Input
Amino acid sequence: MRPLTTGRSDRLELLQTFVCIAEAGSLSAAAAALSVSQPTVTRRVQLLEALLGLRLLDRSTRSVHLTVDGEWCLNEARQMLRLWNESVVAMQSRPERIQEDR
Output
């Protein structure tokens, strides 16, 4: 099993960046939406592609388009992020939550 982190980016961050690129339609628009630099967005998607062993995007100078693998990954990424967010909310709002004294 691979570690939960990939360099300085965690896997959820990579997925969030990929979804943002797909929804924004360009790397620069995704960078603006995420408040990071365009090279950071490029690096994140490259890390995700390397991690998965798939090419997710066809890049041109002005836009990006999802590959067939990218379309499949987008659906999976959205499901994983939705499940993560729902799980975090459920854990935070659990009535029997134990507060640890510090």
Remarks:
- The beta strands are 5-6, 9-10, 57-59, 64-66.
